[in-house]
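hi! just following up on the protien thing from before. the input was this:
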Amino acid sequence: MKCKRCDTVNEHDSIFCKKCGKKIELNTYCVKCNKKLNDDEIFCTQCGIENVEVIDLESNNKKNAGVALLIIVVITLFLSFITFAVNNI
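and the predicted 3d structure came back as:
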């Protein structure tokens, strides 16, 4: 997470900046329509849904990208193994 005050990159689960001590604000979005929410908003002003569990899309996207890369590597290795096995029969 990047601090908005001093631009220091902090750990993804940090609550306060390790350099300046400012509370790190999450980029929270509505779980239904993905509208960016302020930290104090419980109800979305776009669709009206209550956002009890807000999500941090930046963290989720980074996690999803890592998982997708791992899946691609595993599939590539599997296909290479199958190709090698078929060619050596």
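The radius of gyration is 20 Å.
The longest strand covers residues 28-29.
cheers
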